[in-house]
Structure formats: structure tokens, C-alpha cells
Amino acid sequence: MRSPLPRAVLNRLETGRLVVLSVLLGALVGGLSIVLRLTLDLLLGLGRRLTDFSPPGTTGEGGLMMAFGTAQPWGLLALPLIGAACAWLIPSSHGDPLTQLVGGYHARGQWPPLIAQLRTLGGTLLGYGSGLMVGRDSAFTMTGQLGARLMQRVTRLDGVELRTLTLAGGAAALGAVLHAPLAAAVLVAEVLYRRFEFEFEVVMPCVLAAVAGTAVYGLAFGFTPLLSMPDVQVPAAPQLPAFLLVALVATAMGWLSLLACQVLPERWTADGPLRLVVGAVFGGLTAAIAAFSTPAVLGDGSGWLQLGAAGFLGPEAAGQGAWRWLLLAIGARIALGGGVLPSVAVGGLIGTGMGSLLGIDTAVACMVGAVAFLTVTLNVPLAAGLLAVTWGGETLLPLALVASGLAHTLSGTSGLVPTQLGARRDSPVHAGGPAWLPDTVRLRPRRVPVAAPSAPVPYDAPESTLQEADLLPPPSSERELYRRAVPPSWHGARMQVVSLPPGVEIVGVVRDGTVRLPRPQLRLTPNDELVFLARPDAYAALEGILRLPGS
């Protein structure tokens, strides 16, 4: 529906609404993250009883920088069953929470069903609590998406608002768990594409939601950084080649992990018995490494990253990183090992081991390796650099940017998020041409009698010629799309009884943030919105009719 207000005023009103919704969503997700944090702490306690081992934790999340217990073989025997259960709970068609977040945006807001999202959340909670390499951030990312779905139940959101706010909810949750709201907002806007491109339209809503979510979350658990690091100094010039070597090794390991992920045939990881077998193998391999080599492979690795950043690990960190690299290569295809923290841990441990062998600052080497590896796996060079700066201080900024830029340049456009697209032009959200509405709506020209052609059409002419003679030309640029709420007199009516003036047709019904086909038996509700395709003069006539008393 056209408004008599100037376009500049409308823009300010629409922007103000999105700002308010972003802040409210961030506060909502922050509260949900508090509940999730308490749930994760409870699950970690149960997992500790199962395996008799408690890995170190990050200081920002209330963890201790030491491990407790020794992994007991009897408890580890449950990991294959848990791995198979996680593979069954997380649908292969949707992927892990970050894959769902990216894929739903590019599908114009066609998010997985609620039951699929709840199953994914359950799978991530089960895997993380039992000690499998499932990132703590994965459960938070899914919680952010569920927070946007909950807000949609409370207030009416159109398709654009729902897409934007779902990304903002993911940013709010990631900002809370990573203790880095700005880096989380940039990561969500950057992870959508494999190339160095952003969704600039969603950056500010993501920033607002991430700041609000972190503020609410911090009221309960404090505002300390996720990692506790010593005072980092700017590296001396003679040490720069060694740090560049660390970045190159981490980049190469990240690139090899992407190649290793492709070894498993797709039919093995699709929904079915073979996927459960792969999940069981992943859990069994984790148990075997923990029993016969090192229990340091249990958990998402963020606690061991904390020890490496604090300087408590030496060359043995490279071995831990290598084991985790193997698990990441196997589990990523079944949504185990994806997300932010597992990649950061692998790269950080490799960097710590390399730094210890080269005799350079292990804290700086840890961050350099983490930045390079995360850049390769998720294609987020700027967000990776911002994470390092948030955790380690501004002195890391030049080296972090060099490491992320080098990794992004050398690694190409592969990644662990299969729903990532190459560039903005590849996204259906930015598709040009006559696709004015989401893919769920197709405009079909009506068949009408036409004047006899100047030349008769032979009876044996091709079918395409006969069809072209019976169809109207495609919609002209004179017709425009209009959107308005359902008039009160149409509430409860079926589409087949709605009377429209000539030149006006209904091409879509917006309900619950999605556009539906205007089928004849569809009954209109007060919360629906109608999408009209009409000439301006015809639509003005329709508005005049609707303004009459009793309409």
C-alpha cells in the first residue's frame, strides 16, 4: 500500500522499527543464553561422571585452567552410541546450526521446521555434554535462531525483517558465548559468502542485537574476555618470518582439512543407516584416542586453547591439534566439529606447538594459528582478526590482519559451511529480473481470448506457437507491487469470493513471515497481509472502494 508520507520519512520509520526489534531480540536471546549456559554446565557435570574426565575451561565462561581425572574406558564406550545419536538428531539436509543460519537466509527466509531446529539443538547439547568435539557456540547459534522464531510469534514480521532478525539473533547468541559482540556481528554478516563480501544491510541490526545480548548475558556471568592472556607485545621485526610461517602452516592444515572432508562419499553422510555408522565411528575414534593417546581430544578444545594462549602448553600442543584436525575432518560432514570454537581450537593448538618449536611468543603464535585456521574453514578473515584482537588486545591487530589476509588469499573459496555462496550476486536474496516475490510465489499470466492473428496458425504448428498465441505478454513495467493488511470486511472470507476491480490481482498472501499462493480456498485472517499486482490507477480505485463506509 502506498503511503502519503514522503519516502524519507518512511525510511526513518522502517529503520526505527528494525532498530527497536533488534535491541529487543538481543535482550531476549541474552536471556535465553543465560538459561542455555546453566543447562550446559549441568550437562558437563553429567558428562564428567560418564567419562571421569573434566577438560580445562575458559576463564570467561567460569572454567578452570586445569584438567581433572583420567578418562575411564568403561565410560568412553558410550561415545560411539552418542555419536550415532547426534548424527541421527541433526538432519543432513539442514546441517549444523551455522549451516542452517546461512542456508535459511539465502533461501529467502525458508528456515528448517521447528522440529528440525529442536532436534539440532538436542544433538548439539548431547554431543557437547558427552565430550565429543561439538562447539559450545553451536548450541548458542541455534538458540539465537529460536529466539527470532519466538519473536515472530509475538509481533508481525515481514519476510525481510524475519531474515534480518534471524541473523541478528545468531549474532546476539555468538556475541554472548564468544564475549565478542562486534566480532560476532561481523562474522554473521561475513560468513554468508565465500569471497570477501558482506551483507551490509544486516550489519547494524547484528551489532545492536549482539551488544544487547552480551549486556544481558554479562549481567549474569560477568564481562571478562573469553580467554585470559598475558600482556602481549608487538613482535620484533626478526620474529615476523617465524609468525608468518605459523600462519602458513595453519593455513595449509586448514586447507587439507577441507580436502579431507570430501573423502567421505555424500551417500555415507546422507540421512540413513550409513550416517549413523559414520557418527558411531566418530565417537569410537574419539574414545580410542582419549583412552590410548591423550584425553585432551574430549570437548570442543576451547579450554586447551586457553592453556595455549596463557603459555602453559609446549610442543605437545601440536600433537593435540593434529588429533583434533583428524576428528574435524571426519565429523564436519555429519555436523560434528563445525562452528567457530572447534576451528579456533585446532588452529590455536597448532600455532602454540609451532611457536614453542620456533622459540617465539606462544600466546601470539596461538592467536595467529587460530586466525589463519578459522579464516580457511569459515571464510571470515575480518571476523577472525577481530576475535583475536578482542581476546588478546589491540597489539595483535596488524599481525592478525596479515595472517587472515594471507590465509584467505591462499586457501581459495572452499569452506566447512556448505550453504555458503560465492558472492552476493549468487544469492536469491539479491537476484535480479522479474522475481519480485519469494520462490514460493509464481506469477502466471491469465489465458484470455485474443484477436485473430493476421496470418492463420496451421493446425500442425508446434505446440509452443499455439501457446504463445493464447497468452498475454509478460507483466509490463507499468504494473507495480502493493502490500497492505487485509481489510476488515474481508476477514474470514475465502479468496474465491474476493471481488477486485479490473487491473488488480492478488499474487501473494503474507502469513507468519512467508508468502503463500492465493489459492481459492484460502481463508483470510486479520493477521494476514495481501500482495497486489496492479496499475497505479487501478489500485487507487481499489483503495477508494475500501475507504467507503462498510468496506
Write the layout of secondary structure elements.
Elements: H1 7-51, E1 53-54, E2 68-69, H2 73-76, H3 79-89, H4 97-106, H5 114-130, H6 136-154, H7 159-178, H8 181-190, H9 200-221, H10 240-261, H11 266-269, H12 273-292, H13 302-309, H14 316-331, H15 341-358, H16 362-378, H17 381-392, H18 397-411, H19 463-469, E3 480-485, E4 504-511, E5 514-516, E6 529-534, H20 536-546
Antiparallel strand pairs: 1-2, 3-6, 4-5, 4-6
Helix pairs in contact: 1-5, 1-6, 1-7, 1-9, 3-5, 3-12, 4-7, 5-6, 6-7, 7-8, 7-9, 8-9, 8-17, 10-14, 10-15, 10-16, 10-18, 12-14, 13-15, 14-15, 15-16, 16-17, 16-18, 17-18
Brief summary:
It contains 20 helices and 6 strands.
Question: Explain this structure to me?
Answer:
The protein is mainly α and 551 residues long. It has 20 helices and six strands. A hairpin with a 2-residue loop joins strand 4 and strand 5 (514-516). The longest helix is centred in the N-terminal third of the chain and has 45 residues, at 7-51. Mean pLDDT is 85; it is low at 1-13, 432-454 and 465-477.
- Proportion of helical residues: 55-70%
Unreliable parts: 1-13, 432-454, 465-477
Order of helices and strands: HEEHHHHHHHHHHHHHHHHHHEEEEH
Give the overall shape.
elongated
Please list the strands of the largest sheet in the order they lie side by side: 3-6-4-5
Question: What Rg do the Cα atoms give?
Answer: 27 Å
Mean pLDDT: 85
Instruction: Count helical runs.
Output: 20
Instruction: Profile the largest sheet.
Output: 4 strands, antiparallel
Number of separate strands? 6
* Separation of the first and last Cα atoms: 16 Å
- Structure classification: mainly alpha
